[in-house]
# Entry
Amino acid sequence: MIYSLKDIGKSYGTRNGAVHALDGLTFDVTIGERVALLGPSGAGKTTLFRLLNATLRPTRGILRFDGRDLSAMSGRDLRSTRRRIGTIYQQHHLVPSLSTLQNTLCGKLGSWSLIHTLRNIVRPSQGDTKRAIAALESVGLADKQTARADELSGGQQQRLTIARVLMQDPQVILADEPFASLDPALTETVASLLMDLVTNGTRTLVATMHDVELGLRLFPRIIGIRDGSVVFDEPAVRVGREAIAALYAGEQLAPATRLEPEDWRGAAKSEPSREPNCAR
Ligand code: ADP
# Structure
């Protein structure tokens, strides 16, 4: 078991009183699983995501990572746990003025001391350079090593975030709407890259997905969240049209998520930090 959530609640204190973003979430995620979090805006997906990457603590309940209570961790212990969790953010969090290679090296940041970081970004060791180049090769960016991150297209930047996670080599990858900014062709490329990272069964992937059809196609397990609670937690092949309609009731679905009766259902394959990041 990589994650175990028991009666998790999270409230934010605001001037107008407490906002209960999550209320009584209980579920487990096993090593090697691929899970998509679906739900309308305001459901609590981002809050859950931040609890899972240990950048927020729950207000109540117990959240265990690999058997250990995340809320009981601090200092070095927490940092080393965060290194085991790689996060792919929608906004990429790249450093625009650094090269593609340097941004990839940033994947190792959480493992380095400050001195080592400064030295290694400017003059990386041969071993780190080799690994960063291999990561860039695997996402098809080997020829862009010296290009600045801000010279890359949106799709290339998204692939660079995957290279950076490869460099980090985490046990868990959390991806926040990883395909939201990509056109359909690039979505297929980036999706297969991301899925390749987790098909060996030792890495776990949890992603928030805006595109319902894609979520059902790529992820064997779907957790639907609404108003801070789990509405359903099912294998994708069992998530029906009615369940999706109820989950998003009252919300306009994006064009890509409009569902045709049979072309999305059953298409899912059935199979079993804080990110170290130069931009923060
Ligand atoms: P989602 O990602 O599904 O859109 P969020 O986790 O961002 O949902 O938000 C869930 C609820 O918590 C919403 O009502 C939102 O307004 C509230 N919320 C999120 N972050 C904060 C915050 N920092 N302070 C106060 N309320 C927040």
Observations:
- The chain has nine helices and ten strands.
